[in-house]
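Write out the bound-state structure for iron/sulfur cluster.
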Amino acid sequence: MSKIGVFVCHCGENISATVDCARVAETSGKLDGVAYSVDYKYMCSDPGQSLIKSAIKEKGLTGVVVAACSPRMHEPTFRKACAEAGLNPYMCEMANLREHVSWVHEKGEATTEKAIDLVRILVEKVKYNQSLNAIKVPVTKTALVIGGGIAGIQASLDIANTGHKVILIEKDPSIGGHMSQLSETFPTLDCSQCILTPRMVEVAQHPNITLYSYAELESVEGFIGNFKVKIRRKSKSIDEKLCTGCGLCTTKCPVKKIPSEFNEGLGMRTAIYVPFPQAVPNKPVIDREHCTYYLKGKCRICEKVCPIQAIRFDQEDTIEEVEIGAIVLATGFSVKQPDFFPEYGYGKYPDVITGLQFERLASASGPTLGEIRRPSDGKVPQNIVFVACAGSRDEAKGIPYCSKICCMYIAKHAMLYQHKVHGGKSYVFYMDIRAGGKNYEEFVRRAIEEDGVNYVRGRVSRIYEKNGKLIVKGVDTLLGAMPVDIEADMVVLATAGVANSDAEALAQKLHVSYDAYKFFAEAHPKLKPVETNTAGIFLAGACQSPRDIPESVSMASGAAVKVACLFSQDELTRDPLIAVVNRMAPPVYSSCVGCFLCVSACPYQAIEKEEIKNRAGEVIKTLARVNPGLCQGCGTCVAFCRTKSIDLQGYTHEQMYTEVMALLNEY
Amino acid sequence: MTLGFYPGCSLKGSSREYAESVLAVAKAFDITIEEIKDWNCCGATAAHNMNRELSFALPARILSLAEKQGLTEVVVPCAACYSRLTVTQYELAKDKELKDRISEVNGMEYKGSVTILNIIQMLDKYITPKLEGKVVKPFDHKVACYYGCLLVRPHEILKFDREEDPQSMDEVMLKAGATPIDWAFKTECCGAGLSISRTPSVGKLSGMIVGDAKDRGAEAIIVACPMCHSNLDMRRKEINKYLGEKVDIPVLYITQALGLAVGLDRKELGLNRHFVKVTV
Ligand SMILES: Cc1cc2nc3c(=O)[nH]c(=O)nc-3n(C[C@H](O)[C@H](O)[C@H](O)COP(=O)(O)OP(=O)(O)OC[C@H]3O[C@@H](n4cnc5c(N)ncnc54)[C@H](O)[C@@H]3O)c2cc1C
Ligand code: SF4
Ligand code: SF4
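---
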C-alpha cells in the first residue's frame, strides 16, 4: 500500500495569489494512498525541504509529490532532498502549479480545481514509480570553443590555464572578432589592438590550445561530458606547415579590388589574403569565390612567386572528428548595414557609414591610417553627425531592444573626431544616454563638456543629399520639438547589434534555445547567465545579447569556470530516464520481435542489435538493445515499437495510462 | 470587366479632374466603373478625431453598400478615403464585437468581403500589364513622384509598398515613358488640412516639396491624392512666396499622366482645371 506525501508550495505569492493552496493540500490529503499533505510558503527553502525530509522519515512515505514550480526549476532540488531522507530520488514527482496554473489562469474555482487535478494525476503516477539508479558516464576533458572573438579567446585561455585541452574554432582566417577592428576602446581610450593582439598570440602559442581558423562546426552528437563533434576545416589552398607567412603572394595577386571585410568595405584586399597584418594565424588563405584560377582556370601567379611552393590549389575541405566534454559558444554578433534604413538612404550615400566603419577610419591600421576622411572623396568632414539608436529600440524596425554598446561608442567616436579634426563640429542625435557602468557616465560627460560634442536629444527622420551635403533632418525635443536641419559632410549610424545570420542554424545544430531575435538563450536570466538549457553547453560574449568588452570577458571567464567545474569530476551522473527493451525468461527472452523499426526511428543512434545465443553459440534470437550512454530519453522508439516492447523509465506505459485514467475518473 | 468605384467628396468637387481621368483611363482599357450607390462621406480627418465608433461606421456603411451591390473590388482613388476604408476593414476584421456593433449602428450587415484597391494597385492590376503597345505618346519627362502620407502609411495596416522610400508610382511612370527622379520628399507632409486654417504653413511644407523637385530638375510632380494635389497646385502662390521665386512645375494625377501617354484627350483628362498650367 502506497504512502504518498503531497507538498503544496505557495511560491511566495506566485501560486497562492491565484490558487487556493490550503484547499489543494486538504483535498489531496483525502486521496487514496496519500498519507500526508501540507502547504507551505517556500517549499524549496531549507525549512521547506526539512518538512519533506522529516515527513518521509516519520510517516515512512513511499512516494512524494511536490506541487510547486516547473520541474525544470527545482526537480533536482526536491529529488536530492528525498534522497537525503533515504527515499529513492525517482520516487519524487513535481506538479507544476506555477507555469501551468497560476501564471496562466485567473484566480478562481476552476483554477484551484485544475491544480488539484494535476496533483491527482501525479499521485496516481507515483504509485507506479520504480526506484531507479542514476547512470554514471565518464567525462572527456577537452573543451570546444566556437568563435575566436575576445570572448572565445578569453574562455579558451582560462580553460587552458586550468590544465585542460581546448579546441578553438574560428570561421574567419584570423581570430580577433570585432575587437580587432576597433580603434580605441571606451571608457579608457586604450588602443584595441594593443590589448588584444598579445592575447591572440597567447592563444596560438598555448600548449593546451589547438586553434582551427577558417573552420566551422559540422555536426554534434552526444551529451554533456561526451560530445562527438565534427569540424569542417575549410580549405585555405595553402600548406600551412610549409607557409612562412612571408606574404609575397598577397602582393602579387592580380585580383586587388575585393572589399576588405576587416576594413568594412572601406579598403580593398586581394584574392589570396591575410585579413590584417596582426592576424593570428598570420598565413594567407585563397578566397575561391574571387580567385581568377578557381573562376577561370588561369593565373596561378601566387604559386609561381611562393618561394617554398606552399600553394595547394587542389586542397579540399577536411572533416576533423573530435571528442569533447563541454562546449563554449562565443560566436558574437553582427551590426545592421545602412541598407536597412530607407529613411537614411538605403545605403546609397557613401558618406553615411556605420559605427564599425568609423572604427576603421579612426584606426591607425585602417585605410586612412587613422585620419578621419570620408569615403566618397577623401575629404576631412568639417561637420559630422552621429545617429544613436539606428534601428535599436524601434518596434517598427523589429528591434525593440537596446543594443547597449552604442551610447558609449558614439561618445568615443565623437571624442576621437574632436581630437583628430580641430575646429570640426560634431553632433549626436540621441533618445537617452545609457551610460551605466564604471566610469562610463564620466566618459560621456567628458565628450560633452571637454570636447564640445553637441548632443541633441531627438530623432532623425530623414537623411538626404543636396548640393554635395548630407541634410540631416532631426528634432530637438529639449527645445520644444524644434526641427533641426544639419548640413553634414558625413553621418555615422550606430546601427543595431543583431544576431549573426547563421545563429539560428547553429543553435539548432547544438539544440540550444534562442530568443525571438536569434540571440542564444541563457538557462536563467539571473542565476544561470552563462549556461544554456542544454547541459554542457555554455555561452560567452555578444552571442547572447549585444555587450561590451568588459562584460564579454567576464562572461567568458564565468563560462570557463563552469567548464573547469565539469572537468574536475571524472564521472557525471545522468538521470536514468531512458528507454529499455523488456527482457523475459527464456525461451521468450523479450516481446521484441526484432523488426528494428526503432533503430531507424532513434535520432541519436542509440539502439543496437543484440544477439541471444544458446550454449552452442548459435544465434537463437536478435533483439533491440538501448545503449544507456547514448539514449536521450526522447521516447520516439516507444511510439514506433509495434509490440510495445520498449518502455521509457520514469514514463512507462503503465504510468502514462494511469495518469490519463486519473484525469478521466471523478474523485 | 467591372470595378466598383468610391469617389468620395473631393472627386466630386475640388478634384473633379482626378475622377475624370480615372474614368477616362478605365474606359480606354475597357473597364466598366460602377459607382457605389448612395455612398456617404468616409469621415475624413474629422471623424476619427472625434468619435472612434463613428470613424468606423461611416466607411463600414460604404463597404456594406458595395457588398449589397455585389461588388467584389472597389477602387478608391483618394488616398485619405483609401486609408479610412482600409483601416476600418482592418480593425473590424480584428474585432468581431466591434464589427457586430458597427453593423448594428448602421442597421446594415457588414461582411468585410470587398477588396479595396488604391489607385496604384488598380493600375498595377488592370492597366500596366496591358500598357505595352498602348503608349503612343510616352510621357517623356523627368517626374517627381510624390506619395504623401496616407497612400503608404501605416504599413502594418495597408501592407502596400515601402513606407519610407516607396517605388510603386515610380514604376508605373517608368512604364509610361517617364524618368522618375530620386528625391528626398516623396513622403514628407504637404501640410494637409492646414491649407485652410494656416495657409502659410502649407506654403512652407509644400514649398519644401516643390523646391526639392525643382532643384533636382523635375518637369512634373505626379500625385495620387486630392489633398496633395490641391496643396501643391492651388497653393502655388504661397509656395512661391516661401521659395522666393516663381516655380511653375505642374502637378498631375498619375491617371492624367498615364492618360496622356496613351493618347487621351487633354480636356477629357481634366488638365484644363489646374491652377498651375499643365505645359507638359
Ligand atoms: C562600432 C563598435 C564599437 C565598439 N567599441 C567598443 C569599445 O570601445 N569598448 C568596448 O568595450 N566594446 C566595444 N564594442 C563592443 C565589442 O565589439 C564587443 O563587446 C565584442 O566584440 C564582443 O566579443 P565577442 O567575442 O562576444 O564577439 P565578436 O567580436 O563578434 O567575435 C565573434 C567571433 O566568432 C566568430 N564566429 C561567428 N560565427 C561563427 C561560427 N558559426 N563558427 C565559428 N566562428 C564563428 C566570428 O568570426 C568572430 O571572430 C564596440 C562594438 C561596435 C560595433
Ligand atoms: S591564383 Fe588566385 S589567389 Fe593566386 S594570385 Fe591568382 S588570383 Fe590570386
Ligand atoms: S528514447 Fe529511444 S529513440 Fe529516443 S534516444 Fe532513447 S533509444 Fe533513441
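---
The longest helix of chain A spans residues 549-567.
Chain A touches chain B at residues 342-343, 346, 348, 462, 464-466, 471 (CB under 8 Å).
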